[in-house]
Design brief:
The complex is a heterodimer of chains A (506) and B (206). Chain A has 506 residues and is an alpha+beta fold. Chain A has 9 helices and 30 strands. Chain A has helices at 43-50, 106-112, 305-324, 340-349, 380-391, 419-436, 450-453, 470-476, 479-501; strands at 19-23, 26-30, 33-35, 38-42, 53-57, 62-67, 70-75, 80-83, 86-89, 95-97, 100-104, 120-123, 128-131, 136-145, 150-157, 162-167, 170-175, 179-182, 192-197, 203-208, 216-221, 226-232, 283-288, 327-330, 354-361, 371-376, 394-397, 403-406, 439-447, 459-466. Chain A has a 6-stranded mixed sheet, with helices on both faces. A 5-stranded antiparallel sheet of chain A has the order 5-6-7-8-9, covered by helices on one side. Chain B is globular, with a radius of gyration of 16 Å. Chain B starts with a helix and ends with a strand. Classes of the chains: A alpha+beta (506), B alpha/beta (206).
Chain lengths: 506, 206
């Protein structure tokens, strides 16, 4: 008579959800049974999953499981097993349901895992049985504030890469993992109508209310985890209707700057820089260098600067628009020549908050390589213009009484009043590029750059690499390098936006 | 002393009239000089194969001038002392210096000014602004890149300002006209002052 005949013979109940087995080959459900408040799994299922030999052993009073010459002997009487001669405890002894032998699911972690070739990870909370070297991301979704603005976050442990996009009314966060180990998401709140986790393997989707504005997504990474924060502002205005436009709110009277009459001794202190620390980053202009007949630098293998700059600029535009919700205008989106003044005019007319010109460098020596960032250096005329603008603010009567002051500066020196903020942006670019790409010997430079002088907003020019260097000529044409550069520039823009929108230090 | 901007612009307009006159006067002379020069310097020559600049004969009076070339790694300017024929007065001396500067770089340095570039005219205003008028090759044959352009511009600007004390600023003209840039980067619309921050090496007489 079999020893096990005396074991539990119960009809178990199925748990709320099956375990999910995840291997390199995919995922599939594995049925389990609840017996006496313990969850059991059938040994023959385990045997087929893990290529085990299972033998009932009357002499030993239990079951012998063999895997590549290693053995587990599990007792039918005692809640324990001998694993290659070492005793481990189990929550329950081997059980029987009909003709099948059952073991507690902890058998997998405590008895099978120690003798198995590949890692086995049983994640009870998420009901996952992960076999092999698979990147599992623990994901916790939270609503941090119902708002508006509504704030939600996705915490990914360990710190795996997470990307996000806004598409068709949904913010989709994609985690660079093989599988998500996700706790059930919270109930939707505020401007979030629905939260779905792992509907497409490794994504978390937030359905955004139609009343919401453009969501903003930012990602911070620590050594332990990656945190994606989503902020959903309320929609600014209802879309254009056929009705008469709503009366515009009367602009508050501009704070009257005490006029500084010409000739007055007290020269005003350095005026507040236009656009500084009061602005938001809503629109930016990206300027792909050269174009048309002006091919720019030509690489030794024939790569043309004008094409590389356009490729990277397009990549940046889509990255920034989808992930930051910042409107991006390109000064050219095709292979055509645009004059420096034409480029500046596009930026000034669109009232952009930031201007970035994208170039590829050239050097008289093929050995030179690395990225460099430029911002404008004012010559004497530029300094004169800046000072004269500061001293000759025009004070004009404003609609509805009061006065407003206007900076007067020659149009071709528009950048003069932004140089300080531009230098901040250039430094951030340099610091972020350094994390992703080789840098030139003088990575941050100030020079009288033509296209920067006429833009009336913070501005910088990035030379992403030296096209005259054969290795870099290859690199700049690769999606991998362009992706890394785009990420670096994107990170700098995120930092600059934070800087721009932060309250000014006293 | 810096004049207010408006009078600066006005002054520039006046200067332009003067400049135009000077250009006309010197056109014939420049034509003659360029004919001569073209015979001496073939525009398609590679820098490496360019003849070493013939040092002035011992009996020809000369000065030691500082000229600027690219360092062998292409990162910076090298200030190199070289013999340049003596010129009578700053303007004639400036022409001599620039003509030497436009020649191919002596090894191991690299040339920063495109081969085939010639000096069309050189003059100095009363205010100490020098105008260096170069042939179109300086732009059309320029390989481009911000770094490259900065080095080219400051090789010229420094060569003039380092050797001629009368000159404070240098404006580069192309084919007799004010130009935007050489190849799309460095703003040529205003005169440059000397900038030694790009200079990494200084070498004595070759």
């Amino acid at each position: 008579m079999l020893v096990l005949a005396s074991g539990p013979h119960a009809q178990g109940t199925a748990p709320a959800s099956p375990l999910t087995l995840i291997t390199r080959d995919g995922r599939r459900p594995v049925p389990t049974t609840i017996l006496n408040n313990q969850e059991f799994i059938a040994l023959d299922d385990l045997a087929s999953m893990f290529q085990l030999m299972v033998r009932e052993d009357a002499l030993a009073g239990g079951v012998t499981v063999t895997y590549k010459g290693r053995t587990i002997v599990a007792s039918a009487d005692q809640p324990m097993a001998s694993v290659n001669g070492r005793v481990v405890t189990l929550p329950a002894p081997v059980a029987r349901a009909g003709r099948r032998l059952l073991v507690p699911i902890d058998f997998i972690a405590r008895a099978l895992a120690p003798i198995y070739d590949s890692p086995i990870d049983l994640r009870r909370a998420s009901r996952l049985l992960v076999v092999g070297s698979i990147r599992v991301a623990r994901v916790v979704v939270r609503i941090d504030a119902a708002g508006p603005p509504t704030r939600a976050s996705v915490e990914v442990t360990p710190a795996l890469l997470a990307s996000s996009m806004f598409d068709a009314g949904r913010v989709i966060v994609r985690v660079e993992a093989d599988v998500l180990d996700a706790a059930p998401p919270p109930a939707p709140a505020g401007l979030i109508d629905q939260i779905q986790v792992g509907t497409q393997a490794t994504t978390i989707a937030f359905a955004v209310s139609p009343r919401a504005g453009m969501p903003r997504v930012s990602t911070t990474t620590t050594t332990e985890s990656t945190r994606v924060t989503i902020e959903i502002p309320p929609g600014a205005q209802p879309p254009d209707t056929t009705a008469a436009p709503a009366p515009q709110p009367v602009p508050p009277p501009l704070a009257a700057v005490p006029p500084a009459p010409p000739g007055q001794d007290a020269v005003p202190a350095v005026p507040a820089l236009p656009g500084q620390r009061t602005a938001k980053l809503q629109t930016m202009v990206i300027d792909p260098g050269h174009g048309g007949d002006d091919v720019g630098v030509r690489g030794p293998k024939g790569a043309l600067e004008k094409q590389v700059t356009l490729d990277l600029s397009r990549r940046l535009k889509s990255l920034i628009e989808t992930r930051l919700g910042v409107r991006v205008i390109l000064t050219r989106d095709e292979d055509r020549a645009v004059s420096p003044d034409g480029r500046d005019a596009i930026a000034n007319n669109s009232k952009a908050d930031l201007f970035l010109s994208v170039h590829v460098n050239g050097a008289p020596s093929a050995a030179m390589k690395g990225a460099e960032v430029y911002y404008l250096r004012l010559d004497r005329a530029g300094e004169d213009a800046r000072l004269s603008a500061a001293a000759s603010e025009l004070v004009l009567p404003a609609v509805g009484g009061g006065t407003r002051s206007i900076d007067v500066i020659p149009w071709d020196l528009a950048q003069a009043s932004h140089v300080d903020v531009s230098s901040r942006f250039a430094s951030m670019l340099e610091e972020e590029l350094e994390k992703h790409a080789p840098m030139g010997p003088r990575p941050l430079r100030q020079a009288p750059i033509r296209v920067l002088s006429g833009v009336n907003m913070p501005a910088a020019l990035v030379e992403i690499a030296y096209l005259t260097n054969a290795e870099q000529e290859r690199a700049v044409q690769s999606a991998e390098f362009q992706g890394a550069l785009a990420q670096a520039i994107f990170d700098a823009i995120v930092r600059f936006r934070t800087y721009l929108e932060a309250p000014a230090a006293p | 002393m810096t004049p207010p901007l408006a009078s600066l612009a006005q002054g520039r307009r006046k200067r332009w009239l003067q400049a135009a006159a000077i250009v006309v006067i010197f056109a014939v002379a420049a034509w003659g000089a360029s004919q001569l020069l073209e015979r001496m310097v073939s525009p398609v020559q590679e820098p490496q194969s360019a003849p070493a600049p013939a040092p002035p004969a011992a009996n020809v009076p000369h000065i030691i001038a500082t000229l600027y070339y690219g360092t062998p790694d292409g990162q910076a300017l090298a200030a190199v002392k070289r013999e340049v024929a003596l010129g009578e007065g700053p303007r004639a001396q400036g022409r001599q210096i620039l003509q030497s500067q436009l020649e191919a770089a002596p090894p191991p340095y690299v040339s920063l000014i495109p081969a085939g570039t010639t000096l069309r005219a050189f003059y100095i205003s009363e205010r100490g602004d020098a105008f260096v008028d170069l042939s179109p090759e300086v732009s059309t044959m320029h390989p481009g890149g911000s770094t490259n352009e900065l080095l080219t511009v400051y090789a010229i600007v420094n060569a003039v300002t380092a050797n001629l004390s009368a000159v404070e600023r240098v404006q580069i003209l192309i084919d007799g006209k004010q130009a935007d840039t050489l190849a799309g980067h460095v703003d040529l619309r205003r005169p440059f002052e000397r900038d030694t921050s790009l200079v990494r090496e200084s070498k004595g007489t070759q």
